[in-house]
Prior knowledge:
It comes from Streptomyces pathocidini. The chain crosses the membrane at residues 7-29, 35-55. This protein is mainly alpha-helical and 151 residues long. The chain folds into two domains: 2-74; 92-144, no CATH class. The protein contains five helices and no strands. Helix 1 packs antiparallel against helix 2 and helix 4 (113-125) packs antiparallel against helix 5 (129-144). The two termini are 33 Å apart.
Amino acid sequence: MRAKITYFALSAALVGYLVLVGNRGVALIRQGTPITVAFGASVLVLPLIGAWFLWQTTRFARSANRLAAELEAEGGLPVDELARTPSGAIDRDSADAVFARRREETVESPEDWRAWFRLAVAYHDARDTPRARKAMQRAIALHDGKPVRTA
């Protein structure tokens, strides 16, 4: 729940920033000189990029949550079996052992979105966010019957 609140707060801040930047771009264009019009047009590119990024991130999060809900309904969500240090940090050897099992699942069933979802969670637990995102993207594509990019 805390992650959702943080996501919405940061998204609202980004939208506010994009509106402010967009207003500056429009103000520059309204001045009408060739230089200010060029600067204003280039400034307007930033809100477009930011809006696209926010849309893609929101779409990804919604798709991942949809898969999590479906997996939870099936009783297939991975349980937290990781050992932790006294401070609460994940024990590296424990994360490596879970990761090895999850990776083996995907090797055995490369077309199973559930295995890729669990691998994404294992990557996330290992603090490897780029690979976690790619594994989740693959799980979403497999679930939705879309072509899967191989890298």
